[in-house]
TrEMBL record:
Co-factor requirement: pyridoxal 5'-phosphate
Protein name, entry field: Pyridoxal phosphate-dependent aminotransferase
Keywords per UniProt: Aminotransferase, Pyridoxal phosphate, Transferase
UniProt keyword Nucleotide-binding present: no
Organism: Haloarcula saliterrae
MF annotations from Gene Ontology: transaminase activity
Pfam families given in the database record: Aminotran_1_2 (PF00155)
Subunit composition and interactions: Homodimer.
Classification via Gene3D superfamilies: Type I PLP-dependent aspartate aminotransferase-like (Major domain)
Lineage: Archaea, Methanobacteriati, Methanobacteriota, Stenosarchaea group, Halobacteria
Domain of life where this protein originates: Archaea
Length: 372
């Protein structure tokens, strides 16, 4: 699999060029509104003084970092605001490779392809650990794959693409594997607001110098275009306390700073958005998951109902998840999903459908008609 060329656009563009109406279930961009306070924050920003149109502090707006630190119960000095979870993952993985011995990154299979692409261009060796049949990564399998060569272990919960959510025990076990092998656990928690199981546990619940947690407001506040994310690095007074400084320097050299108005609006929304906003998003998605899974049953597909996130991985009889079949599905059924082959080998027979569309009902009907 060529992870260095992002494949999402390939299927999206194919779907956009199709001669027929297509329900686009490829991209992970929410189709719902951001919290009202995001819009208010942006509007208010238009009237701000000229100096607030200049560079933000490189690590992020003070108030935003304080709010993030309070959310996680950590010292503000550990927080770097980044351009989305993407940059946070980049900084964390780079730091892990530099700081720890070994040149290997352990990744789950199926994998969020950008981890693998990033590992490739950072010149790291990649070792993939296949998930279990229910889509979960078994900590014992991660332990068996890890060695002194391992510098970084990546975990993602709730998971893209499997929908798995790891509880406290599994997260503690991933952290332990990192510690035992003198490596860094990078815990990507960008879907943390989309846990339907009640099981989600942040890696930060485990006190460890071997953990970086990454996150963003991209999905939780439906603002993927804002590019506001963050990483929480290990305590600055511990053995890996320099990781935050290294990341800050890299972030500064690459970006100078993140977008100030976007950070301001997100900060406002953190302060003013109540839990009902997040509950409504979860409820909407759970209804979509329910309807989509009903259709998958009718269509004779094999799948695991996601415990979190907003993707469903499904396998249809005699229809492997190749790029060719994804394109066939666009042309013949009018539904665009992402080929499982884009996520590695373990789920190459599956297709991944993103439920970030108001047209789940139409997609469901079309899939039942096509495969049923
Ligand atoms: C697992 C995972 N991590 C990171 C990202 C990127 O997040 P951001 O848009 O905040 O960079 C995505 C986006 O789809 C994702 O699925």
């Amino acid at each position: 699999m060529d992870y260095e060329t992002p494949q999402f656009y390939r299927v999206m563009q194919y779907a956009a060029r199709a001669d027929r109406d297509v329900v686009e279930m490829v991209s992970g961009s929410p189709d719902w509104d951001p919290p009202e306070a995001v819009r208010d924050g942006l509007s208010a920003y238009a009237e701000a003084d000229a100096d607030e149109f200049q560079y933000a502090p490189s690590r992020g707006l003070r108030g935003l970092r304080a709010a993030i630190a309070a959310r996680h119960g950590v010292d503000e000095a550990r927080v770097v605001v980044t351009n989305g979870a993407g940059e946070a993952n980049h900084l964390a993985m780079t730091g892990g490779l530099e700081r720890f011995d070994g040149g290997e990154i352990l990744l789950p299979d199926p994998v969020y392809p950008y981890y693998a692409g990033r590992a490739n261009f950072l010149g790291a060796e990649t070792t993939f650990v296949p998930v279990e049949s229910d889509g979960r990564l078994d900590p014992a399998a991660v332990r068996a794959a890890a060695s002194s060569e391992t510098a970084v272990v990546v975990a993602n919960s709730p998971n893209n693409p499997t929908g798995a959510v790891y509880g406290e025990d599994a997260m503690a076990a991933f952290v332990a594997v990192a510690e035992e092998n003198d490596a860094l656990l990078v815990s990507d928690e960008v879907y943390s607001q989309f846990d339907y199981s009640g099981r989600f546990s942040s890696a930060l619940a485990v006190e460890s110098p071997n953990v970086v947690a990454t996150n963003a407001f991209s999905k939780s506040m439906a603002v993927t275009g804002f590019r506001v994310g963050y990483a929480v690095f290990p305590p600055t007074d511990g053995p890996t306390g320099d990781l935050v400084e290294r990341a800050t320097t890299r972030h500064m050299l690459t970006n100078v700073s993140g977008s100030r108005p976007a950070q301001y609006a997100v900060q406002q929304a953190m302060e003013r958005t109540d839990t009902a906003y997040y509950e409504a998003a979860r409820e909407r998605l759970q209804q979509r998951i329910g309807r989509f899974c009903e259709a998958l049953d009718e269509a004779g597909a094999t799948y695991t109902r996601p415990d979190g996130g907003f993707y469903v991985l499904a396998r249809f009889p005699d229809f492997p998840g190749s790029f060719e079949n994804a394109e066939r599905l666009v042309d013949e059924a009018g539904v665009a999903g992402m080929p499982g082959a884009a996520f590695g080998e373990a789920r190459a027979d599956d297709l991944r459908f993103s439920l970030t569309t108001p047209r789940v009902e139409t997609a469901a009907e079309r899939l039942v008609e096509y495969f049923g």
